[in-house]
Design goal:
20 helices; 20 strands; elongated
C-alpha cells in the first residue's frame, strides 16, 4: 500500500501543477508599460508610469505590486486617468482625475479602486522614492529594480531613466533580468531599457553610474570600492546573465538523463528477476499445501519473519489445529456490555492437553496469553472502551498493558526466530543505504547548480545549500525510513518551482515525480528464493480466500478444510470477504453450526480488540497502527478490501514477493 500512497502523492502533485496553470474567467493582462524615471539632484527618484491593461471579466480594483513593505522610502504613490495633451514624464498631476488608492502592507501592494469590465484601460502612476541614488566622490550610483518580482506578466516594457541635471559625459548602465531585456539606448542624457515580455516573478534591475555632480544636493558617502572596481564587478555579473541560458539548458539535459535513469530504476525494481522468479515459482505451489501449512509458518513467510501483535492468533490457531486449544463464543465482560461500541460476544480459547511436549515458543505463548490459566480471554488484550476513555485515570493502566504486550510479542518473536532460523532467510536490502543518500545528493547538487545558473545571489545559494544539505543528511542517516526521503523530494519540488526557465523546471519536476516512484519501489529487504516463492504463493492464496476459498477446500464442505481456510482468512485480513463469498457459494450450508470460527461476531470482535480499542493510545510510538515487533520492518501494508483489522494486508500483487524483490541482490 505504501507504493499506492506514492502513486497517489505523485498524482496529487501533477493535479496541483495542472490546475495551477488553468486560466480563470476573470483576468487582467498588462499589454504595455512605459516608465519615465528622473534622478533628482537630492538622490530621490521621481517615477511616472503608464500601464495599459486588458481586462477580461469584471474588476473593482487592480493591484500595483511595489514590494516596499512599510513604505519606508516611498514618499507618495498616486494613480490617475492619463491626460491626452501631455507626454509621459510631464504628466504631473494638475487637473487630472485621481483614482482612490489603498495600500496593504503585508502584500506590499497598492490597490487602485475602479469599475472595469471587458475593456482596455490605461492607468497613470506617479510616485517618488526617497534617496534611491547614492553619491560618492568619484561617481553617483542608482541600483533600482523596476517591476520587481511582480505577480503579472508585463508585455512591451520600456523604461527610460534620466538625470534631472544632464551629465557632461556618457552614462554607464547595466541591466539584469531573466527574460531577454536589454539597454537599447545609452548616452549622456538618458538610458533606455526595453523588454518584449517581463514574465511574472522576474524583475528588471537597472544599475547606472553617472558623474557625481548630477547629485548636487546630496552629501557624498564613503565608497567601499573605486569606480573601476565597481564597473568590473558589474561586467562579471552581466557575463553571468549572458551565460545563464546556456547553463540552464545544460541543466535541462542533465535532468532529462536523470529522468531516464529513474525510469530504468523503476522498471528494474518493479520487474526484477527476483520478483518474476518468485511469482513463477509461487504459482507452482498448490493451494492445498498452503492450507495445510502451520499458521505460524504461513504468517512467518508472509511477514518475512517479523510479526505484529495480532499475529499471535497464528500461534493460537496452530495449537487449535493440533487439538491443544478449543474455540467458543461467549458473552463479553461487564465493561464491554456497558459500552455501546464494544462487541457483546467474543471468541474464547480454552487450553487442553499436556503442554510439556510443546515447543518452547508454544509454551511461552500459552503462558503469556492465558496468564497461567487454562483460558485465553481476548478482553484481557483489549484497549480502553469508549466509556473508559472519558476517564483519564484508566489511561495509565492501558499504557502499561500495551508496554507488557509489546514486550511479550518481542519475546515470542525471539523464540520463533531461534526455532525458524533455517526455514526462512530475510536480510535487509542494504543497497538502500547507498541509493537513497546518492539520490538525495544528486537532487541537492542539481538544485544548487540550477540556482547558480539562474544567477541567484551567492548568499541565497549558501542558505539554500545549508538548509537542503541538512535535510539530505537526515534522509541519509534515516535511510531505512522512506518518509524522510519523500519529505526531501517534496521540498525539492517547491524549491525548483520559482526558477524562471520552464524547460528546465518541467524536466526537473518530472525527475522529482519519478524519484518518488523509485523510492517507493525500493525494497526494505530481500528473502531467499524459496521463501520469496512461498510468500508470493501466500499472497495469491490470500486473494483466493477473499473470493471465497479454493475448490479443494470447499469440496464436500469438509469441516476441517473450511476451518483451515477460515483461520487463514482471518490471519490474512480477508475474513469478512471470505465469509460473504463462501456463504453465497454454499447457501444451503449453515456455517455457524459447523464451528464457532464461522460466527458472524468473530470478525467484529477481532477488529475491535486488536485495532479500534487501541487507537490513540500512545506509549513510545503512536498506536493507531497495528503493532510490530520491529517498527522498521515487516510486510508492506496495503488495502485489499479486507476487514478494517487488515493487519496482514500488503496490496496483494501477484507479481512477485512484494518488497522482498529488488534486483541487484
Amino acid at each position: 500500500m505504501k507504493n499506492k500512497y506514492v502513486l497517489l502523492l505523485a498524482v496529487i502533485i501533477l493535479l496541483v501543477v495542472i490546475l495551477g496553470r488553468c486560466d480563470t474567467d476573470n483576468e487582467v493582462t498588462v499589454n504595455q508599460v512605459e516608465v519615465m524615471a528622473k534622478i533628482m539632484a537630492d538622490g530621490d527618484l521621481y517615477v511616472e508610469e503608464l500601464f495599459t491593461y486588458t481586462i477580461q471579466g469584471e474588476y473593482e480594483k487592480i493591484p500595483r505590486y511595489m514590494d516596499n513593505f512599510g513604505e519606508e522610502n516611498i514618499e507618495f504613490f498616486e494613480a490617475y486617468v492619463p491626460p491626452s495633451d501631455r507626454e509621459l514624464g510631464n504628466f504631473g498631476y494638475a487637473h487630472l482625475e485621481r483614482y482612490p488608492v489603498t495600500f496593504k502592507w503585508k502584500a506590499g501592494t497598492y490597490y487602485i479602486q475602479l469599475d472595469a469590465k471587458d475593456e482596455t484601460r490605461q492607468i497613470y502612476y506617479r510616485y517618488r522614492l526617497d534617496r534611491e541614488a547614492v553619491k560618492y566622490d568619484d561617481r553617483g550610483e542608482l541600483d533600482w529594480s523596476v517591476l520587481k518580482a511582480d505577480r503579472m506578466d508585463h508585455h512591451n516594457v520600456t523604461v527610460t531613466v534620466y538625470p534631472e541635471q544632464p551629465a557632461k559625459e556618457t552614462l554607464s548602465g547595466f541591466t539584469y533580468d531573466r527574460s531577454g531585456g536589454s539597454l537599447t539606448e545609452i548616452n549622456h542624457r538618458w538610458v533606455k531599457y526595453e523588454n518584449a515580455l517581463l514574465p511574472e516573478g522576474d524583475r528588471a534591475r537597472l544599475k547606472l553610474f553617472f558623474p557625481s555632480e548630477v547629485l548636487s544636493k546630496m552629501e557624498s558617502a564613503e565608497p567601499s570600492a573605486t569606480l573601476s572596481e565597481r564597473l568590473l564587478e558589474e561586467q562579471k555579473l552581466q557575463q553571468r546573465y549572458e551565460d545563464r541560458e546556456r547553463f540552464l539548458k545544460a541543466g535541462q539535459h542533465i535532468s532529462r538523463w536523470l529522468t531516464y535513469a529513474a525510469i530504468v530504476g523503476i522498471f528494474y525494481f518493479a520487474l526484477s528477476l527476483r520478483r518474476i522468479f518468485s511469482w513463477w515459482s509461487g504459482r507452482r505451489i498448490r493451494f492445498e499445501d498452503l492450507a495445510a501449512m502451520d499458521p505460524i509458518d504461513l504468517m512467518y513467510y508472509f511477514r518475512k519473519g517479523t510479526f505484529r501483535f495480532a499475529d499471535t492468533l497464528a500461534g493460537v490457531f496452530s495449537l487449535h489445529r493440533r487439538g491443544m486449544v478449543s474455540v467458543s463464543i461467549v458473552q463479553s465482560g461487564t465493561r464491554f456490555q456497558e459500552d455501546s461500541r464494544a462487541p457483546k460476544r467474543l471468541p474464547e480459547f480454552t487450553i487442553k492437553g499436556n503442554r510439556t511436549d510443546l515447543k518452547k515458543s508454544d509454551r511461552y505463548l500459552l503462558s503469556w496469553l492465558s496468564h497461567g490459566t487454562a483460558v485465553l480471554k481476548l478482553e484481557n488484550f483489549s484497549g480502553p472502551t469508549k466509556t473508559e476513555r472519558k476517564n483519564k485515570k484508566f489511561m495509565g493502566k492501558y499504557i502499561e498493558r500495551k508496554r507488557k504486550l509489546k514486550e511479550g510479542l518481542r519475546r515470542w518473536q525471539e523464540l520463533l526466530d531461534s526455532e525458524n532460523s533455517k526455514r526462512i532467510q530475510y536480510r535487509e536490502y542494504t543497497a538502500r543505504k547507498v541509493i537513497i543518500p546518492a539520490m538525495a545528493l544528486i537532487h541537492l547538487v542539481l538544485l544548487i547548480y540550477m540556482y547558480i545558473a539562474d544567477v541567484t545571489p551567492w548568499g541565497w545559494v549558501v542558505v539554500l545549500a545549508a538548509i537542503l544539505g541538512g535535510v539530505v543528511v537526515l534522509a541519509s542517516i534515516r535511510w531505512r525510513r522512506k518518509k524522510y526521503m519523500f519529505t526531501f523530494l517534496v521540498v525539492c519540488f517547491f524549491v525548483a518551482a520559482p526558477i524562471l526557465y520552464d524547460p528546465l523546471v518541467d524536466e526537473y519536476l518530472n525527475f522529482v515525480i519519478l524519484s518518488f516512484l523509485l523510492v517507493g519501489f525500493l525494497p526494505r529487504g530481500a528473502l531467499d528464493r524459496r521463501s520469496a516463492a512461498y510468500r508470493s504463493a501466500i499472497k495469491r492464496y490470500r486473494r483466493t480466500l477473499a473470493r471465497g476459498g479454493h475448490d479443494v477446500g470447499r469440496a464436500g464442505n469438509d469441516r476441517k478444510w473450511l476451518e483451515k481456510m477460515r483461520e487463514d482468512a482471518l490471519l490474512l485480513g480477508v475474513g469478512e470477504r471470505f465469509m460473504r463469498n463462501i456463504s453465497k457459494a454454499n447457501p444451503e450450508f449453515t456455517f455457524s453450526e459447523a464451528s464457532p470460527l464461522f460466527d458472524n461476531d468473530m470478525d467484529a470482535a477481532l477488529d475491535y480488540v486488536f485495532i479500534h480499542s487501541w487507537k490513540g493510545i500512545n506509549e513510545e510510538t503512536t498506536l493507531g497502527r497495528t503493532w510490530r515487533s520491529d517498527s522498521d520492518s515487516g510486510a508492506d501494508s496495503g488495502a485489499d478490501g479486507g476487514s478494517s483489522y487488515d493487519y496482514s494486508s500488503d496490496g496483494g500483487h501477484d507479481g512477485g514477493s512484494g518488497d522482498s524483490g529488488g534486483g541487484g541482490d
